[in-house]
Amino acid sequence: MARTSAPWRDLPDYNGSWKTVYTRFRRWQLSGVWEQILEQVSAEPDFENVMIGATIVRVHQHGAGAKGGSI
């Protein structure tokens, strides 16, 4: 939610009350929990499960079906 700037109220119902989730997130942020998690996760990256989102991958115009000149 914080990364995508989506409203906390848009959380799915199975997560519980958005206010409770936000309060927990904020407490963890202030106490440094997120920094500890990121340190542990980035300590020894194994790159076994690396994924590239389609939102950052662009296809060249020739591969996207753009009209071109004669071949």
Question: Could you describe the 3D structure shown?
Answer:
- The longest helix has 14 residues, at about 20-30.
- The protein has helices at about 20-30, 35-45.
- The protein has one domain (about 1-60).
- The chain has about 70 residues and is mainly alpha-helical.
Task: List the topology elements.
Elements: H1 18-31, H2 33-43
Unreliable sequence segments:
none
- What's the helix count? 2
Could you tell me the strand content as a percent range?
Answer: under 5%
Distance between termini? 48 Å
Tally of separate domains: 1
Average pLDDT: 77
Characterize the quaternary organization of these chains: single chain
SSE succession: HH
Number of strands: 0
The largest β sheet comes out as: none
What does the overall shape look like?
flat
Radius of gyration: 20 Å
Short description:
By secondary structure, the protein is an all-alpha fold.
Offer a few descriptive terms.
mainly alpha; 2 helices
